[in-house]
Structure formats: C-alpha cells, structure tokens
Specification:
With 478 residues, the chain is mainly beta. It contains two helices and 20 strands. It has an 18-stranded antiparallel beta barrel. It has a two-stranded antiparallel ribbon with strand order 16-17.
C-alpha cells in the first residue's frame, strides 16, 4: 500500500510538472498574442475648407482697396503603425487655393504653387522594454511637429493650412509625472561633398520664425515638465543657430548680396511656463522667457517675454478672464547699427494666431517694426450646448517701446483695439463647422513707417472666415 501511495505521488508530481509546463507555455503564447494584438494600424485624414474675406488682414490696406475673397483647402492623409517597441507615422498633405490650377491636366505647376508636402514622417523606437517600470524612454527621429505647453514659443501652428514641422531627433523620457525631452536638428540645402554652408532663405515658401524669413541651420533644446496636483510647470532651453554671412557689393549699378560662409550665430531662449488651478473654478497660466546670444544677422540680443492669462468659470457654461502679454522691443528713437544690441523678442516657432489676435498683425508673416508688443486682452467662452461654443476676445495693442515719427520725435505707443468673434459647431465627432469675424480700430501709429508703413490707410480693417473641418477615421468601427 505504501508503495502504491509513493508511486501515485510520483505520478501526481509528473502530471503537475507537465501541467505547469503547459500552463507556462499557455501564458507565454497569451503574452505573445497580446504583444501582437498591441500592434496597431491607424489611418485618419482631414479635409479642411476655409473661405476667407480679407479687408485688412495681416496689415492695413489703403483706402479704396477692394477686399480679397478666396477659398483654401487642406487635404491630409495620416498613416501610423504601432508595433513591438516602435512606432512609425506619416502625414501627406496638399494645400491649395481654389482655381490656382487649371481644371484640366496641369503639367506645369510652379514651385510656389506646389502644395503637395510630406508634413510628417517619423519613426520612434522604445528604448525600454515592456516590463520596465519607466513609463516611456524613446527616440523619435524624422520630420515631426514639436509642440509644448500653450504653444506660445513652440507649436504646430495648425491655423496655417500647411502647419509647421521640423526635421529633428528627439530623446523622450516620461515617468511619474515627469517629462524630459532633448532634441536637435541639423539642416542642409542638399547633399554636399564638402563643407556645411547652409542658405536658409527659401526660394518659394516662407521659412524661419515669425517673419524673419530665414530658416535655422540647426537647433538643440531641452524641455523638462512636471505634472503636479494643482497644475503643470515646465522649463525650456532652446538654442537655434543661423549660418553666418557677409554682405558683398558688386556690379554696376551696385548690388549687395549675402555670401554665406562657415560658422553660425546662436540665439538662446530660456524660461518657464506654468498652468495652475488656484481654485476649482479659477485658473492661472503664465510664462517668462529670456532671449540672448545673437540673431540671424549677428546682432547681440537681450530680450524678454512675460505672459499671464486668467480664466474664471462663471456658472456651468461661461468662462471669462483678462490677461496680458509683454514682448520686449528696441527703442525706435535710437540709431540701429550692425553692432548695436537688439531687445526684440522673437517667439520662436509658436502659434501666434492663438495669442495676438485673429487678424495676425503681430509675429506672423507681416512685420510690424522692432518695438515689441504689449497686449492687454479679455477673453470669453460660452458653451451653449455640448456641440456649440461661442468665443469673444477683446485685445488692446501697444508698442512695448518708443515709436519714432521719423523726424526726431515720438508717436503715441497705442496701436489699436481688436475684437474677435467666433462660433464653433460640432455636427458630429468628425465634422466641425467654424465661423469667425474680426474688426480692428487702428491708430495712425499702426499705419506709421515704424510699424506697418501704409500711406492713406483704412484704419478699420476687417476679417471674416467660414471653415469646414472633416477628420475621418478610416478604420473606425460602425
């Protein structure tokens, strides 16, 4: 009997061993299948039609000028795939104005009108395994959007139909509420056999920061953020480098041109951003940045940006709040030389349409002098329904520094008052209709040679638009 019990125990141990092996194999197969299941393919798109009526958008028009009316269209296809320890993503887009191409086959599309563009194309490798306790440790390389915080200095600029992107490599870390990104870019005009001289002035599309017209040769940055119980706080250091050049005059009549050589001028932007909930219904957002180094023309810089925005929830549907933006500038009454210091702050590669008025008078494609900007504003948002929202913004604009009248005197620093109205209606989760109207009461200082430089201006510019945005998910289940 004892021998039988011993034998039975051995058989049971053998069975348990086999069962354990089978169970282990089952768990391994399940984990493998789950890893395979995590491989995800995404396919989304966007069709955005925007009709604009411009009667002084961007800059003042002259009295008697007719308003412009046109429709622009963006078509974008986004393809992504997530596999084991990697992601890839591509966004192909076409941006055009209705009528710029012939209605039949067009074999001669000029570079300036060619709206087909690879907006994004990047791969991301996960450096930590799936069993790692670190939330994310990855390397993202390729053409990509770089956007942080409220997008005041680094943003995707989605209002612009073509948006903004960078060819860069970014090391990303995230864990326990901490975020740390380190990025870099290095640009060249083409494949070279010798040297690294870079001409950052484009031949067709505008480039560079807000209106400076020159693309950086390289950049390096560090971004560190922390999510707290009462909000977020972050730190940014961003250095962008511009290829050095010398002015060479030759020919008859004399023509001065830039000749690029080795070396760079580097500009440094350092600062922090915060977003805090003071109470359950009161929010404060702000930022402070300092800019130093040298600008694209080799002039030394010492400039600052300071911003505070408040939002108070009144009732269930209404949000209101004042705010102020200060971006330093250079004294317009002082002579500017190649060696004099610039105090003009440039908000890098952000989204100016979001902050300095819907009419894009400041830090957009149209320049406005070098005196900086003081922007007082009051914003209102009303959620009438879950799918219907109204917005109203009031801006007061003034030069942050002295304006010259060109004859040794000074001009009034106040530039104008702008009202922006907007309504947004979500027909479905994928279809949005948006309409906006803006009007400005500009001053003679706005029209002066120091700012917009418009003779016999219309000081009551207007801007209106109607936009349809369709963002389909091609793989969504019905």
């Amino acid at each position: 009997m004892q021998k039988f019990k011993t034998t039975l125990a051995g058989i049971q141990r053998l069975k348990i061993g086999k069962i354990s092996k089978l169970l282990f194999l089952g768990i391994a197969l399940t984990a493998l299948s789950q890893n395979e299941a995590k491989a995800q393919f995404t396919a989304t798109g966007q069709i955005r039609e925007r009709t604009e009526l411009r009667a002084g958008q961007g800059t003042l028009q002259k009295e008697g000028d007719k308003a412009a009316l046109f429709n622009s269209q963006k078509a974008r296809l986004n393809i992504g795939f997530t596999g084991y320890r990697f992601k890839v993503f591509m966004a192909l887009q076409d941006v055009r104005v209705w009528g710029q191409d012939a209605s039949s086959i067009n074999r001669t599309t000029t570079e300036a009108n060619n709206g087909i563009l690879l907006h994004e194309a990047w791969g991301e490798i996960m450096l930590n395994d799936t069993i790692s306790t670190v939330q994310n440790l990855s390397l993202k390389i390729g053409r990509q959007e770089i956007s942080y915080d409220d997008q005041k200095v680094l943003g995707g600029l989605d209002w612009l139909q073509q948006g903004r992107r960078h060819d860069a490599i970014v090391f990303k870390f995230a864990n326990k509420g901490w975020i740390a990104n380190v990025g870099a870019a290095f640009n060249q005009n083409k494949e070279l056999n010798t040297g690294t001289v870079y001409n950052g002035v484009p031949t067709a599309y505008g480039a560079g920061t807000t209106g400076i017209g020159t693309m950086y040769k390289s950049f390096q940055y560090t971004y560190i953020g922390k999510k707290l119980s009462f909000g977020d706080i972050s730190f940014l250091f961003f250095k962008d480098d511009f290829n050095k050049y010398t002015n060479v005059t030759s020919g008859t009549p004399a023509v001065t041109s830039k000749v690029y050589g080795e070396g760079v001028w580097s500009r440094n932007t350092t600062g922090f951003y915060f977003n805090t909930n003071v109470t359950r219904k009161f929010n404060l957002t702000g930022s402070l940045y300092h800019q130093g180094g040298k600008d694209k023309d080799g002039r030394s810089i010492s400039a600052n940006l300071a911003s505070v925005t408040s939002t108070l929830q009144v009732g269930r549907k209404l949000f209101v709040g004042p705010g102020i933006n200060y971006l330093s500038g250079t004294d317009g009454t002082k002579a500017v030389t190649a060696t004099s210091q610039s105090n003009l702050f440039d908000p890098l590669y952000g989204t100016p349409h979001k902050f300095w008025g819907s009419m894009d008078y400041f830090y957009a494609v149209n320049g406005f002098g070098k005196q900086g900007l003081l922007n007082y504003f009051f914003k209102m948002k009303y959620n009438a329904k879950d799918n219907l929202t109204f917005f109203a913004d009031l801006h007061g604009f003034a030069a942050a520094n002295t304006l010259s009248n060109g004859a040794g005197g000074e001009l009034d620093s106040y530039l104008g008052t702008e009202v922006d109205l907007m309504v947004q209606y979500n027909l479905t989760k994928m279809i949005t209709i948006e309409a906006g109207y803006s009007v400005m009461k500009a001053t003679n200082s706005m029209a002066s040679a120091a700012v917009k430089n418009v003779i016999t201006p219309d000081l009551s510019p207007q801007f209106a638009y109607l936009m349809l945005n369709i963002k389909p998910n091609f793989l969504a289940k019905k």
